[in-house]
Design brief:
Strand content: 5-15%
Helix content: 25-40%
Number of strands: 22
CATH architecture of the largest domain: Up-down Bundle
Structural class: alpha+beta
Distance between the termini: 47 Å
Shape: globular
Mean pLDDT: 90
Number of domains: 2
CATH class of the largest domain: Mainly Alpha
CATH topology of the largest domain: Lipoxygenase-1, domain 5
CATH superfamily of the largest domain: Lipoxygenase-1, Domain 5
Low-confidence stretches: 1-17
């Protein structure tokens, strides 16, 4: 069945046997190309090659077993990569293509897998193997995308399978044992500290955020494994416990921060931009943060006018010479170009955020303040107001009276003649409510330099389709104790005088709440943290041969890596998040408490919109949902993307699962789902809302939620960070003073210099510089990003119908792009562009690299 090239071999018994040659093409990237710091890698690998220590591959039959009772497919003779020393490398990708020639017995049959053994000094990144012109089969593709370390690092030779998908019960018997053993290797044995070449996916609690060995002030509670602090699991590293607390994992030294363990194939891609992003994060933490901190500790400075803030983007802030030298000595060269823009002298200068490009002060309008709740960086919290006054779910025995003090009279003066009851009945009142989420932590938060409130904001839907803020309630704990309830004050809009300045401050306090909740809950918890257990379980329980593994794999790219980096330098005790966001040292603890209310089914966009009262079921409308705010850009675009994903998932799953029984009898799928519920999200294992995973509809909905969360939801709340919050006054992350009261010097200053008081109240200069340095990095698309509807490798499956369904998905996303462009040009849809002239493109599927405010990457990759 294979191409015979005329070679005849005589066996030792005198019988003639035909030998066939299969020619192959291997694409890989050598370590010396990827790691410019390892100058010896190329020489040592070439020396090993010269000494006969080569890279060997052996094909495995998908049709015939080895003799005996091993139940493994027949294995062919070793073949070797040809011309290792002389084969060139593509400059653009760092990839090399090698020929390999296999000698293959005709009676072995179709190759379904291969073993590879790396006898060189260094690892390499194996991308693909293609067997060319196999008679009756055509080309057979093996999509590898994996690091292969020297053979002595492994107990068994590495195995890779062809791109054909099989349910466990349909796997060819000769491949079944290899399939099972590969999953066993990926699970590990749960012991020891994991090394960079290990491929182990395992679980741990979030017990590595604190650093009690450094100081008691850096101790943090363990998140996960308790009813008090439940949390999704993260990837295990196996590092030993700290000396001060056996329940806390020891931390890496800061200089080793990039070496935190994740399975090697989960690390960032090897292209330049991905590496740049990694070094950029490290540079901000290790160099920029301490240097700026030292400057502002010794010479505290404030933004004293908005013109002073604009200098960050127009002229830059001069860097002291001593700081400049340290930055130049320690920061990666490419990062240095981005941090230090020069125009006569070195300065810290940032790109102009989109929100002030067209109009420097449109962000201050009430219309833009409200519009960003529908089309900004955090459009996933606003709710339809169902009752008045708003009530609290906090325990009154512990916290006393917590219901809202907003009155009907305060609202109805700006409601176009409607009463509150009429507006609720017509579903025209909405609320941005952070009271219950933040209030329990306020007393502790405000014992620090932070001075924050818990806020409720009520808004009115006008006939022109935009929201108008009616009132803001700011609450503080009672000075005599929690049991006495909240001390609340209500503020209403004003257009001039000191009342206008007070209203501007009230909106800023709401912005602080929204900014902290966005980073901790909408962004970190709901995407980064909740997706990681799915990444781990998929690799532990679903073989690469499994169709659901092939479906989900692109949506897990780089997630474990960015999460590990975050635990090491961003969300850790004293990290950038604690430094720049108002809950400070209580940030992650607070996200744990809010995780108590997380439910998996509610992550479906239609369910979320219904639960928040932003939509109602209506069979007359597209997708059976009617939005209460017709021009709600996140929801309008999101529903199109959601149902495009769901249609793709349905088409794909229906090819492999013809009946519900196929789902319930899939042993790997059932193990996967059981592990997600009982281990990955183990603190929620007894929740009644988990899908049963007994029907095709269970599977389709589950996979749609996972893909939506990792791709579109993350894009909507991540890539608008710099466009909206790169100008800090629009989305301050800290507040340092309470609202000025009449009769105080602060109030008198508010009367005479309201802008200065505003800037002295919100985020200070040091935290502003640090915060926007971070979100500029996090808002960038890397040059090797893979967007929704695209795949990194064309031959990701051998099955034609799924490929056709995927092409249909891609075309549907292109249609959605056209739809978004048309809506952004429709002047009747005022929420899509708004006073700032910033079009809503965060759910526009594709993008160029850089700061674009658009594009849906497949995964939580930054």
């Amino acid at each position: 069945m294979f191409e015979v090239i005329g070679k005849v071999v005589t066996g030792i018994c005198g019988k003639r046997r035909d030998k066939n040659i299969i020619r192959g093409r291997v694409v890989l990237a050598k370590k010396n190309v990827l790691d410019l710091n390892d100058f010896n890698a190329s020489f040592l690998d070439d020396l090993h090659e010269f000494l006969g220590k080569r890279v060997s591959l052996r094909l495995i039959s998908a049709l015939h077993l080895q003799p005996g009772n091993d139940l493994r497919g027949k294995v062919g003779k070793p073949a070797y990569l040809e011309n290792w020393i002389t084969t060139g490398t593509l400059v653009t990708t760092g990839e090399s293509t090698f020929k390999v020639t296999f000698e293959w017995d005709e009676d072995i049959g179709i190759p379904g897998a291969f073993l590879i053994k790396n006898n060189h000094h260094s690892e390499f990144y194996l991308k693909t193997l293609t067997l060319e012109n196999v008679p009756g089969q055509g080309d057979i593709h093996f999509v590898c995308n994996s690091w292969v370390y020297p053979a002595h690092k492994y107990k068994n030779d590495r195995v890779f399978f062809s791109n054909k998908a099989y349910l466990p019960s349909e796997t060819p018997v000769p491949l079944l044992k290899y399939r099972e053993e590969e999953l066993k290797n990926l699970r590990g044995d749960g012991r020891g500290e994991l090394q960079e070449w290990d491929r182990v996916y395992d679980y741990a609690f979030y017990n590595d955020l604190g650093d009690p060995d450094k100081s008691p002030n850096y101790a943090r509670p363990v998140l996960g494994g308790s009813s008090k602090y439940p949390y999704p699991r993260r990837g295990r590293t196996g590092r030993p416990p700290s000396k001060s607390d056996p329940n806390s994992e020891s931390r890496l030294k800061l200089v080793m921060s990039l070496n935190i363990y994740v399975p090697r194939d989960e690390r960032f891609g090897h292209l330049k931009m991905a590496d740049f992003l990694t070094y950029a994060l490290k540079s901000v933490v290790q160099v920029l943060k301490p240097e700026l901190e030292s400057v502002f500790d010794s010479t505290p400075d404030e933004f004293d006018s908005f013109e002073h803030v604009f200098k960050l983007y127009e002229g830059g802030i001069k860097v002291p010479e001593g700081v400049l030298k340290d930055i130049r000595d320690n920061i990666h060269a490419e990062m240095l170009k981005e941090i230090l823009r020069t125009d006569g002298e070195p300065v810290l200068k940032f790109p102009t955020p989109h929100v002030i490009k067209e109009d420097k002060f449109a962000w201050r309008t009430d219309e833009e303040f409200a519009r960003e709740m529908l089309a900004g960086v955090n459009p996933v919290v606003i709710q339809c107001l169902q009752e008045f006054p708003p009530t609290s779910k906090l325990d009154p025995i512990v916290y006393g009276e917590q219901n809202s003090t907003i009155t009907r009279e305060q609202l109805e003066i700006n409601m176009d003649g409607l009463t509150v009851d009429e507006a609720i009945r017509k579903k025209k009142l909405f609320i941005l409510d952070y009271h219950d989420a933040l209030y329990p932590y306020l007393r502790r938060i405000n014992s620090t330099s932070t001075k924050a409130y818990a806020s409720r904001t009520i808004l009115f839907l006008q006939d022109i389709g935009t929201l108008k803020p009616l009132a803001i309630e700011l609450s503080l704990p009672h000075p005599d104790g929690d049991q006495y309830g909240a001390i609340s004050k209500v503020y209403v809009p004003a257009e001039e005088g000191v009342e206008h300045s007070i209203w501007s401050l009230a909106k800023a306090y709401v912005g602080v709440n929204d900014s902290g909740y966005h980073q901790l809950i909408s962004h970190w918890l709901r995407t980064h943290a909740t997706i990681e257990p799915f990444v781990i379980a998929t690799n532990r329980q679903l073989s690469v041969l499994h169709p659901i593994h092939k479906l989900l794999l692109p949506h897990f790219r780089d997630t474990m890596n960015i999460n590990a980096l975050a635990r090491q330098i961003l969300i850790n005790a004293g990290g950038i998040l604690e430094t720049t966001v108002f809950p400070s040292k209580y940030s992650m603890e607070m996200s744990s408490v809010i995780y108590k209310n997380w439910t998996f089914p509610d992550q479906a966009l239609p369910t979320d919109l219904l639960k928040r009262g932003m939509a109602v079921e209506d069979p007359r409308c597209p997708y059976g949902l009617r939005l209460l705010i017709e021009d709600y850009p996140y929801a309008v675009d999101g529903l199109e993307v959601w149902f495009a994903i769901k249609t793709w998932v349905r088409d794909y799953c229906s090819f492999y699962y013809k009946t519900d029984d196929t789902v319930s009898r899939d042993s790997e799928l059932q193990s996967w789902w059981k592990e997600i519920k009982e281990v990955g999200h183990g603190d929620k294992k007894d929740a009644p809302w988990w899908p049963l995973m007994q029907t095709r509809e269970d599977l389709i909905e589950t996979c749609t939620i996972i893909i939506w969360t990792a791709s579109a939801l993350h894009a909507a709340i991540n890539f608008g960070q710099y466009p909206y919050a790169g100008y800090n006054p629009n989305r301050p992350s800290l507040s340092r003073r309470f609202m000025p009261e009449k009769g105080t010097p602060e109030y008198d200053e508010l009367v005479t210099n309201p802008d200065k008081v505003f800037l002295k109240t919100i985020t200070a200069q040091f935290q502003t510089l640090l915060g926007i340095s971070l979100i500029e990095i996090l808002s960038r698309h890397s040059s090797d990003e893979v967007y929704l509807g695209r795949r990194a490798t064309a031959n990701w499956t051998a099955d034609l119908e799924p490929l056709e369904a995927f092409d249909k998905f891609r075309r549907r996303l292109e249609e959605i792009e056209g739809m978004i462009t048309r809506m952004n040009n429709d002047e009747r849809l005022r929420n899509r562009v708004g006073p700032t002239k910033l079009p809503y493109t965060l759910l526009f599927p594709t993008s160029e690299s850089g700061l674009t405010a658009m594009g849906i990457p497949n995964s939580v990759s930054i």
